[in-house]
């Protein structure tokens, strides 16, 4: 690929970024768009100015960048939780390591590559990208020691940074466990595969079992019931109620009267509906809690069992309960608002079949995805494309079209196809039977990561080799050499992919085009006068794989084609500012994994380092440099040993709870006399149907953030300490809250019901005024 094609792609994407970022800085100041760009602030409390004559609203400004930069890690931890902090530390790690890599490779490796052979160089924009790769070195070159030394520096710096980050985040995870308010999940065990007995119910069987074997520690239990018609009716009725509440009363006729919604308590206009007074009166005083599942639903062989101490719950969750491992299966329970209730109805004996089926489905989809990837590679090889389709030769002779097709179009097409991947992988993770939303998102993250690395990196290399009629791997011994031949030829495509999937995607992320269109449609089509809005969860399952993919591309191209490094560094800097802004203003943290995404990042980074070393080893062999090859082999072994040490030293902290920590927490609560009160609050903490009381509904109505409030300028929005008092999670039922509260000063405490979907309208909430 020529440098001119790369410059064309870079120019197009830079223009897109400038336009979108300028639009964002204007649109975020418009009162009609507050619900799009300040969703978290509106729920968590904040100030804004509603001034139609404020001229600064129509002038782009970079003040949001300054505010994102000034926010400290402690403020971010209090506002968004540990997962958000871990994600941004991933970005910071990437900035640090690729800054070191860029300095070393641009200063030393790139000049060696460029002047590797005696030749007459053209102007930079007329050069081929392969001139800047290691392919430009002649065989037996004495300058390969520069590449070997750079590889040692990069590996040493990466391992050192990984070690310190792993140690820091492990401490933060322990602090997350010990420093937060008491959580019901620490006292609760999820029991599945309860054996069926015709003589008694599941509840009686469970009570008899734990009374017999855990009489000193067993407290009580809460059964799981079949997701039936009652739960669906409650959910649908609440949605209808909220829809009717926002409809303008002048659509069809004047409302004759208002009646109170039975389920959520909101006033509903009766435009075209006849209200039957007898039926309304008969259910007027009925509470949703009276529709108990014990009388209307069927018990399932699963339950939440509560124990007197955290240590008792930990022991029960870790040991095998009976000689049949398919019965009485135990796991530590997720937080109440993190439970994925639908999957608790799946029989445990089906889970292993479901996991195999989803694995087969994911692999099959990977092979289906070979078709668009191969087509995309054909666009990057115009010579082969013109031979296969002679009628395109006239069009391809035009210089600008040639540059657009080779430099911009392939990466755009690949990104469009990739939009179908995250929803499908999330669906596969749901089918697996994950018991919590955080586990489901983590599973989807791993699937998207594998899929992305395989298709963007390996499949592009393989398909490119086939199109160019190169030999594909004939044996295992040829893998390093074949990768070494193929990677430099794809350096141009990887750079254009960085422009499109990196820079342009970040600009689209901060613009939130789908939310913006949805907001406009709601106001225009439904004539909604209120600023109803949806709260979004941060898409870790899409952003972490993208971050790791660019890390893989950066490492593998560092000593082979270092021209990509400055562009990657720009991406990581933009990612840090944009993601931080989005986490502070847009995304709500309803549930989190407690930093469990870091081991995924660590392991993938180690994989990227080893793959880089293998490719470099293959190139040193092709260039007949036995000294460089000999020094690379020990580097691979040392990297593997470092990975194993980290796995033994830090990884268990992310998979299990330390008994010592839990025992100390139990003793502290006993000394303070909190245990008895905690036990009383355990009984109704896991409710399968969210209870919407009259009180919470009235709170939601009286605290609407938009209609008649004068709100200050969003540019002056800044996290302030003390906006809210941290509440214990034990008030989950009592205060109608499903938000995880960890007893720290925070800026985001909502009073909201937490539905089943990751993206649901939030209407039953308190907003700080």
UniProtKB/TrEMBL annotation:
Subcellular locations according to the entry: Membrane
Ranges annotated as spanning the membrane: 6-27, 97-116, 143-164, 356-380, 400-428, 448-467, 559-579, 600-621, 627-646
GO molecular function: calcium-activated cation channel activity
Region feature Disordered, mapped onto this chain: 694-769
Entry-linked InterPro entries: Csc1-like, CSC1/OSCA1-like_7TM, CSC1/OSCA1-like_cyt, CSC1/OSCA1-like_N
Lineage: superkingdom: Eukaryota
Compositional bias per record (Basic and acidic residues), positions renumbered to this chain: 713-726
Limits of the CSC1/OSCA1-like N-terminal transmembrane domain: 5-165
Main location: membrane
Record-annotated CSC1/OSCA1-like cytosolic domain positions: 186-343
Compositional bias ranges of the Polar residues kind: 694-707
Annotated Pfam families: PHM7_cyt, RSN1_7TM, RSN1_TM
Cellular-component GO terms for this entry: plasma membrane
Domain CSC1/OSCA1-like 7TM region: 354-620
Family: Belongs to the CSC1 (TC 1.A.17) family.
Name of the protein in question: CSC1/OSCA1-like 7TM region domain-containing protein
Source organism: Arabis nemorensis
């Amino acid at each position: 690929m020529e440098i001119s094609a790369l410059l064309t792609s870079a120019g197009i994407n830079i223009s897109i970024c400038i336009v979108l970022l300028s639009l964002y800085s204007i649109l975020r100041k418009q009162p009609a768009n507050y619900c799009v760009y300040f969703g978290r602030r509106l729920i968590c409390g904040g100030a804004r100015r509603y001034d139609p004559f404020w001229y600064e609203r129509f002038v782009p400004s970079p003040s949001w960048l300054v505010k994102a930069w000034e926010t400290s890690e402690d403020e971010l931890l209090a506002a968004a939780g540990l997962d958000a902090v871990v994600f941004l530390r991933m970005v910071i790690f990437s900035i640090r390591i690729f800054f070191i890599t860029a300095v070393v490779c641009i200063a030393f490796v790139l000049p060696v590559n460029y002047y590797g052979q005696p030749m007459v160089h053209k102007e930079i924009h007329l050069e081929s990208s392969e001139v800047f790769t290691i392919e430009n070195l002649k065989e037996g070159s004495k300058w390969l020691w520069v590449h070997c030394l750079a590889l040692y520096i990069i590996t040493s710096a990466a391992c050192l940074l990984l070690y310190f980050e792993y140690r820091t985040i492990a401490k933060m995870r322990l602090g997350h466990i010990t420093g937060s308010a008491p959580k019901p999940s620490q006292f609760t065990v999820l029991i599945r595969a309860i054996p069926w007995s015709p003589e008694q119910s599941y509840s009686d069987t469970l009570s008899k079992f734990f009374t017999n074997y855990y009489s000193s520690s067993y407290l009580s239990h809460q059964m799981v019931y079949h997701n039936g018609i009652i739960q669906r009716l409650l959910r649908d009725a609440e949605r209808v109620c909220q829809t009717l509440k926002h409809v303008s009363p002048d659509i069809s006729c004047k409302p004759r009267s208002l009646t109170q919604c039975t389920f959520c308590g909101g006033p509903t206009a009766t435009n075209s509906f006849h209200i039957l007074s007898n039926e309304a009166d008969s259910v007027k005083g009925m509470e949703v809690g009276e529709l108990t599942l014990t009388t209307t639903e069927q018990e399932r062989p699963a339950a939440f069992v509560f124990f007197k101490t955290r240590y008792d719950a930990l022991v029960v969750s870790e040991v095998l309960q009976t000689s049949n491992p398919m019965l009485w299966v135990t796991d530590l329970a997720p937080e109440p608002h993190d439970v994925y209730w639908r999957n608790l109805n799946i029989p445990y004996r089906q889970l292993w079949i479901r996991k195999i089926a989803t694995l087969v489905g994911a692999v099959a989809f990977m092979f289906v995805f070979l078709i668009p990837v191969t087509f995309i590679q054909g666009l990057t090889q115009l010579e082969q494309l013109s031979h296969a389709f002679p009628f395109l030769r006239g069009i391809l002779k035009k210089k600008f079209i040639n540059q657009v097709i080779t430099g911009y179009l392939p990466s755009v097409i690949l990104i469009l196809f990739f939009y179908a991947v995250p929803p499908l992988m999330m669906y596969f993770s749901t089918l697996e039977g994950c018991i919590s939303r955080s586990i489901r998102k983590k599973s989807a993250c791993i699937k998207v990561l594998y899929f992305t690395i395989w298709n963007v990196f390996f499949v592009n290399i393989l398909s490119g080799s086939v199109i160019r009629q190169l030999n594909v791997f004939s044996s295992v011994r040829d893998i390093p050499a074949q990768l070494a031949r193929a990677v430099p030829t794809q350096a141009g495509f990887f750079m254009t992919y960085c422009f499109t999937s990196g820079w342009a995607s970040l600009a689209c992320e901060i613009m939130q085009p789908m939310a913006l269109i949805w907001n406009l449609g709601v106001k225009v089509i439904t004539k909604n006068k209120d600023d109803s809005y949806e709260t979004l969860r941060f898409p870790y399952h899409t952003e972490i794989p993208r971050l790791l993919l660019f890390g893989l591309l950066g490492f593998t191209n560092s000593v082979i084609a270092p021209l990509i490094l400055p562009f990657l560094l720009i991406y990581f800097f933009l990612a840090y500012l944009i993601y931080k802004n989005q986490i502070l203003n847009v995304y709500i943290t309803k549930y989190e994994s407690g930093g469990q995404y870091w081991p995924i990042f660590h392991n993938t980074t180690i994989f990227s380092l080893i793959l880089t070393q293998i490719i470099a080893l293959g190139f040193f062999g092709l260039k007949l440099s036995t000294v460089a090859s000999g020094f690379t082999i020990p580097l691979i072994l040392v990297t593997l040993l470092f990975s194993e040490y980290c796995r033994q030293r830090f990884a268990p902290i992310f998979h299990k709870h330390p008994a010592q920590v839990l025992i100390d927490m139990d003793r502290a609560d006993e000394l303070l006399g909190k245990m008895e009160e905690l036990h009383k609050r355990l009984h109704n903490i896991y409710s399968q149907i969210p209870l919407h009381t009259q009180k919470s509904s009235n709170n939601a109505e009286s605290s609407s953030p938009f209609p008649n409030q004068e709100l200050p300028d969003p540019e002056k929005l800044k996290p302030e300490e003390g906006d809210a008092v941290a509440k214990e999670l034990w008030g989950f039922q009592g205060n109608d809250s499903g938000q995880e509260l960890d007893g720290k000063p925070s800026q985001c405490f909502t009073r909201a019901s937490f539905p089943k979907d990751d993206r649901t309208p939030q209407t039953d909430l308190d907003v700080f005024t």
